[in-house]
Amino acid sequence: MSRPELSRRHFLRAAGTLIALPALTSMGFKAFAAEKAVTHPKRMVFLGFGYGVTNETWFPKLTDTGASYALPEGLAPLAEHKKDFTLVQGLSNKFSDEAHWGSTFWLTGANRYSEPGQSFRNGISADQVAAAKLGMDTRYGSIRLDCANAVDSGHGPGSMAWDARGKPMAGHENPVAAYHRLFSDETMPLAQRQALLAQQRSVLDVVLEDAARVRRGLSRSDVDKLDEYFQSVRDIELRLSKDEQWLDRPKARAPFPEPKPGLAGKDEIKVMYDLIVAALQTDSTRVLTYRQPVSALLASLNIKVASHDMSHYSPGERMEAAQKRDLEQSRLLAGLFTKLKATKEADGSSLFDHTTVAYGSNIRTVHYLDNCPTLIAGGGSGIRLGQHIALQGKSTPLCNLWLTLLQGSGANVASHGDSNGIIKELKA
Q1: Other Cβ atoms closer than 10 A to 346
Q2: CA 409/CA 354 separation, integer angstroms
Q3: Packing angle between helix 175-183 and helix 265-281, nearest 10 degrees?
Q4: Which of 84, 136, 179, 413 has the largest CB neighbor count within 10 A?
Q5: What's this model's pTM, rounded to 2 decimal places?
């Protein structure tokens, strides 16, 4: 059938008004104006685990760098994704001096002795810096996923996420709780929820008035404590404002049924990874952290060695346990990458193309806090992928990596934790 002889000068006449026909591609016309480039939101996912890795079989050789490096045995299950992730060696947190403090400072790089007279102080974690920028337009600024066993982070305070005051932020300890947080409808009627928010705001107003009166005549140290208190109130105000913004908007529809209760080990991690993909796919949040279980993972692999004992390995049963753990963690991570790549955006690109995935541990192995295991994947931060980078000289702050990723994802920050610059080797 021949194409109709029409041009863009054809029009419809209606009530004396000229209405030009659109440029119809089926009639041979190209777009009248250049199509606007699709802008995808940036996403960031931080996956942390305690007790490090098997030093001998997880890291590539320091001399084997670039794109053609040999993938080590512990990362072999990730072979199909090799061009889509980068390994970085030579990173650590400057102030880390206690291996049993687990995930506490992994994303903050803080000096726990930075406050005179106090034995513990933390700073804001990289995920919460990202959430302040990337979480503005989503129901949840960030979602924190956790595991029930705090020892799995290597003892110490287990939280990976810390707010602007350096206070730990709780996470969902099992897939069922996380699923309901993301996708289950509110059971409380809207009017009742509105009234509850109004009551909470009223209480905050009274608290602020009382605190302002108390401020007069306080010592300097008490003023500092009160300022920290004010910051906590402001944090609550921000959370209430977010709740009000989404109060009458239904949650996204879950892309799969509610998980079975009681999942543990590798089954739990797999479903948590599914929830991460679902949370990003539905744009419920753009920032997630997941502190992964280790003890339960070993149990699900029928490994009898305790997680702490395994980390103090020597050739034999303990080292074999550590290597089995590495392989299973790599298999699970490969599954996450596959699902992120398979989840398509409207323009045919994938979630993986616009997401940064940071995977690693605060500890290398045993009690060694240098050369933190670090794998970065996805296209969300515009970094060089498919590389093995061995940073030269003295240990580079791990926070240089977080700063590089944050800036690449659109968070306009000049520094983070103990950073002293970005990692130029990662820039595409």
Answers
A1: 7
A2: 9
A3: 10
A4: 179
A5: 0.83
